[in-house]
Each structure stands twice: as structure tokens, then as C-alpha cells.
Specification:
The complex is a heterodimer of chains A (about 90) and B (about 180). Chain A has about 90 residues and is mainly alpha-helical. Helices cover about 60% and strands about 5% of the residues of chain A. With about 180 residues, chain B is mainly α. Chain B has helices spanning about 5-20, 25-40, 45-60, 75-90, 100-110, 115-125, 130-140, 145-155, 155-175; one strand at about 95-100. Chain B is globular, with a radius of gyration of 17 Å. The chains are: A mainly alpha (about 90), B mainly alpha (about 180).
């Protein structure tokens, strides 16, 4: 068996035979459908990217908030004991 | 194709980018040629109709991306058609069919050849690599020049010449033929 299958035929297909497969109206309809699908796909992609960015933003804000509350809880104000006698202070 | 015809086609393409209905002119002009080109590689009328329609749909969908590269617009259509045919065979994992008009084979060799000799040519063609057959088909049955063949098959011009030369060299050796690059004896 060869690599290809070769068939010999007597005639080339005539224009009349081919004409019944020619349908430009159908092609235009398929084109407009494809364009719609493509536009929808593009919109979906933009929405998806926007959603991912919003989610990332929310996550970052929450992490920052958590970090801020943690640091405010850990903060212990220093207590300075004083004898109440300020007379020795210079000036 | 003359420079004026190429310019006219380019202006149609430009207009078709804004209004797809304009593309109809090119569709009518090239439909038969593309249909015959695909049919020669499938030998199935309905399948050819599908692939041909898909070819023009792809062309119309991507008309915005078309850029003139020194070859006529038809070469771009042939390239899309060739890709569609290859995609079909890759998907189906079937042996590629070449359905050749007998009169074209006779034109290429010698009108006086008997059927037995023609059958031997067919057997010889069966064993040629598919890439070589594609080049031969475009060169001798579609009358394309090497620049166009290179563009259609996405190979270099020297690659197209090399494939043709090798295929013809084998034909000459096997059948004592005297075919030139341009298909004339």
C-alpha cells in the first residue's frame, strides 16, 4: 500500500455541478454568527479579568486590614512610674 | 495576474473589511477554483463543499488580518484551503486521497500513452511523499508559480523548487520523460 491513494477520473467538475454548493447568503449568516460568538467571548474574557482583579483587590484589602488590627492589638503602651516629685527637674 | 487586477482586489478586500457583503465578488470569482483544488484532494463532493465553505468562512472572518505579501489574494485562499484539508486528514487519521483528472495526467506526460503506462504513473504517484504531491498538484494542475506555492504550503521558495525537482527527477528516471519545471516537454 502506498503513502497516498491516487484516483483517476475522467472529467473536471463543471461549473454547473459546483454551482449547487455555492451559497453566499449562508456564508454571510455563518460569518455574522461567528462574529457574535467572538464578541461574546471577548466580553466574557474582559469580565473574567475584571472579576479576577476585583477579587485580588478584595483579598489584598482584607489582608492589610488583618495586619493593621494585629499590629494595634500587639501595641502595649509603656507605663512610666513617677515619684510625683518634679522639683529636681532642671529649669 | 496584472498589477491593476491585484490593486482592484486589494480595494475590494479593503471594502470587505467594513462590509462583508462586498466579499461576495471574491467568493464568486474563486469558488470554482478552490472547490476543484479541494475536490482533487478529497474526491468527495459533500466533504469538498463543507471544506470549501469553511475556507471562505475563515477568509471572511480573518479578512482584517490579510496583508499583501507579493502574491495574489487567491494564494491566501489556497493556503487556507490547504490547511483545512490537512486538518481534516489529521482529524480522521486517513490516508490522503488525490483525485486527478486523467486528461491532466496525459497533458503532463504524453497523449499517446496507453492505459497501462498511465496506471504505472499512478502507482508511482502513490509512493511519492504527500508534500511532493501537493507541490506537483499546485505546479502542474493549478499552474501556480513557485512563489505562490511556497506561500500556500508555508515553505520556502527554494524548498518548493527542490520538491518539484526531486519528484520530476524520479518521473524522468522511471518513465524516460522530458518534463520541465513548468510542465512543458
Amino acid at each position: 500500500m502506498g503513502r497516498n491513494e491516487i484516483r483517476l477520473r475522467r472529467q473536471r467538475m463543471t461549473s454547473g455541478q459546483i454551482a449547487r454548493h455555492r451559497n453566499y447568503q449562508n456564508l454571510l449568516e455563518r460569518h455574522s454568527y461567528d462574529q457574535k460568538i467572538r464578541r461574546l467571548g471577548r466580553i466574557m474574557t474582559y469580565l473574567l479579568v475584571a472579576a479576577i482583579l476585583i477579587i485580588l483587590f478584595v483579598i489584598i484589602v482584607r489582608i492589610e486590614k488583618k495586619a493593621n488590627t494585629k499590629s494595634s492589638v500587639n501595641f502595649v503602651p509603656a507605663v512610666v512610674k513617677s515619684s510625683g516629685d518634679f522639683s529636681t527637674l532642671p529649669g | 495576474m496584472s498589477e491593476a487586477e491585484i490593486q482592484q482586489e486589494l480595494s475590494i478586500i479593503e471594502a470587505a473589511r467594513a462590509d462583508p457583503r462586498v466579499f461576495g465578488t471574491l467568493y464568486e470569482k474563486y469558488f470554482d477554483r478552490i472547490f476543484n483544488y479541494i475536490y482533487r484532494q478529497t474526491d468527495d463532493e459533500d466533504l469538498t463543499a463543507d471544506l470549501c465553505s469553511q475556507t471562505f468562512l475563515q477568509a471572511l472572518n480573518h479578512i482584517g488580518k490579510f496583508e499583501f505579501r507579493g502574491v495574489p489574494f487567491s494564494a491566501w485562499l489556497y493556503r487556507i484551503a490547504s490547511n483545512e484539508v490537512n486538518k481534516h486528514y489529521r482529524k480522521r487519521k486517513r490516508q490522503q486521497v488525490f483525485s486527478i483528472e486523467e486528461n491532466l495526467v496525459r497533458d503532463l506526460v504524453d497523449q499517446s500513452w496507453d492505459n497501462d503506462l498511465i496506471d504505472r504513473v499512478v502507482v508511482y504517484l502513490k509512493d511519492l511523499p504527500t508534500e511532493m504531491l501537493q507541490v506537483l498538484e499546485l505546479r502542474f494542475f493549478e499552474n501556480k508559480d513557485f512563489k505562490e506555492i511556497a506561500f500556500i504550503l508555508n515553505i520556502t521558495e527554494s524548498g518548493a523548487k527542490m520538491r518539484t525537482y526531486r519528484a520530476l527527477d524520479r518521473l524522468r528516471k522511471n518513465f524516460n520523460l522530458d518534463i520541465r519545471y513548468d510542465g512543458k516537454k
